[in-house]
Amino acid sequence: MQERIAELTGSLRGSDEKLFPRLRRLLEDRGLDPAKSVLVEMFSDEREFEYGIVVTGDREVFQFGLDCMGRSPDDAELIEWIDWTRTYHLAAFRPHVEAALDTLGS
Q1: pLDDT at residue 106, as a whole number
Q2: Which of 22, 38, 54, 88 sits at a 20 to 30 Å CA gap from 14?
Q3: What are phi and psi of 31, to 5 degrees?
Q4: What does residue 86 show for φ and ψ, rounded to 5 degrees?
Q5: pLDDT truncated to tens, each residue of the chain (106 aa)?
Q6: Cα separations (Å) of 23 from 8, 31, 59?
Q7: Structural domain range at position 37
């Protein structure tokens, strides 16, 4: 789990591959600093839709949905944004979020 989080976070912060540059811009548009955030998970479904969870440098937790259907990566749209800060402990990804929070320290 830690290895995957580290890999995703490295991609979020600096990769020019696929959707990462667009995701950085979308997070910045929401006032988040990708350089201080941790990408907990990101996966796609069969419909070119990316689901993800990000933990911010301020220890906020958000689940997002990035719509890529029929779009280039530069045109992907953030169509789902859910604040999990107070409820992540109820989610299946709780251990992942807690691992991400641990990497941020106190």
Answers
A1: 61
A2: 88
A3: 85, 15
A4: -95, -10
A5: 999 999 999 999 999 998 999 999 999 999 999 999 999 999 988 778 999 999 999 999 999 999 988 888 889 999 999 999 999 999 999 999 999 999 987 6
A6: 12, 13, 19
A7: 2-104
DSSP 8-state secondary structure symbol assigned to residue 89: G
**100: number of Cβ within 10 Å:** 27
Please tell me the chain's helix, strand, coil percentages from 3-state DSSP, rounded to the nearest 5: 40, 25, 35
* 66: β partners: 50, 78
Number of domains in the chain: 1
- Please state, in angstroms and rounded to a whole number, the distance separating the CA atoms of residues 84 and 62: 5
Distances (CA, A) of 32 to 14, 26, 28, 95: 15, 9, 5, 22
> How many distinct helices (H) and strands (E) make up the chain?
3, 4
Taking the complete model, does pTM exceed 0.90, yes or no? yes
21 three-class SS: helix
